[in-house]
Amino acid sequence: MHGRSDFESGMSPPKKGRTKADFYTFCSWVLTYTQYEQWKQDEIRSRDNTSPMDSASSTAESYTSESTLSSSSKDDSSRVLDMPDSEDESWEVITCFCLKPYAGRPMIECSECNTWIHLSCAKIRKTNIPETFVCNLCKEKQFKSRKSSRVRFENKRIAV
């Protein structure tokens, strides 16, 4: 075993702790890779392209156009799901307790249960990412286990 690396000998190298900088770099890389910023700008641009003249249409017309838009958005979502398999299948994976997919939004991993949660759902700012993060479900489990492991004594009163 003289001169062999840990990898060659079957041992995995020790894991490095994640830092705020690592997480921010990861999020930046993912957002760049998925071109999220460009997609978001295109989405905003398409929303802003509706002219004020459109708002003067009748209620029936607006209802019809809304239902057409909602059905076309359903078609868009099914097209997204029908896309060929790629490395980026995580785009639609739901891990957060809000039951919404990753969709390019920055997420943080709970160090207890390894669940990925959107920063917005965890109420964490990109500028204030903690070194270790524990989700509310794990915090509640810790609190309940600490509370239930306490020894309970009955309050005995002496009758006189």
TrEMBL record:
Name the domain of life.
Eukaryota
- Tell me the segments the record calls region Disordered: 42-86
Looking at the UniProt record for this protein, which Gene Ontology cellular component terms does it annotate, in alphabetical order? nucleus
Q: What is this protein called?
A: Zinc finger PHD-type domain-containing protein
Q: Where in the cell is it found?
A: Nucleus
Offer an example of a GO molecular function term for this protein.
zinc ion binding
Compositional bias per record (Low complexity), positions renumbered to this chain: 54-72
Q: Which residue ranges does the record assign to the Zinc finger PHD-type domain?
A: 95-139
SMART domains per the UniProt record, alphabetical: PHD (SM00249)
Q: Which SUPFAM superfamilies match?
A: FYVE/PHD zinc finger
The organism's lineage is: Eukaryota, Metazoa, Spiralia, Lophotrochozoa, Mollusca
Carries keyword Oxidoreductase? no
Q: Which UniProt keywords apply?
A: Metal-binding, Nucleus, Zinc, Zinc-finger
Organism source for this protein? Dreissena polymorpha (Zebra mussel)
